[in-house]
Amino acid sequence: QAQLVESGGGSVQAGGSLRLSCAPSSYTYKETCLGWFRQAPGKEREGVATRASHGTTNYSDSVKGRFTISQDNAKNTLYLQMNSLKPEDTAMYYCAAAGYCSGAQLRDIVYRGRGTQVTVSS
């Protein structure tokens, strides 16, 4: 079964940057919607960014202007560039492939990774 593998998480100070990567282990992305969501302990899952197959991107209000989602088709890799990180961005970040995007939310998730931890200190 196909798996998504995230990388690039880590610990940074507020104001710093990280770039997350997500690559499938054994197939080529073909779902309509690719994206990232995050979950912090004790909090609801939050859609962060999505990229539809036709290229439209959407972001949650909490990350708009700071995060950028992109895809390198040649490398079959999805990225999330995170700049101006804040302590409230601390969470486990997951990439996923889904049936469709609804704003920054992924709907009908088909595959998801195991997550990569992002920790931002003040």
Describe this structure as you would to a colleague.
- With 122 residues, the chain is mostly beta strands.
- Helices cover 0% and strands 57% of the residues.
- It has no helices and 11 strands.
- Strands 2, 4, 5, 6, 9, 10 and 11 form a 7-stranded mixed sheet that branches. It has a 4-stranded antiparallel sheet with strand order 1-3-8-7, with no helix packed on it.
- Strand 9 and strand 10 form a beta hairpin.
- It is globular.
- It starts with a strand and ends with a strand.
- 34% of the residues are buried.
- The model has no long low-confidence stretch (mean pLDDT 93).
Let me know the largest β-sheet. Answer: 7 strands, mixed
The whole-number mean of residue pLDDT values reads 93
Tally of alpha and pi helices:
0
Give the strand content.
over 45%
- Large-scale geometry: globular
- SSE order: EEEEEEEEEEE
Euclidean distance between termini CA atoms? 40 Å
The strand count comes to 11
Rg on CA atoms, Å: 13 Å
Structural class: mainly beta
* pLDDT < 50 stretches: none
Helical residues, percent: under 10%
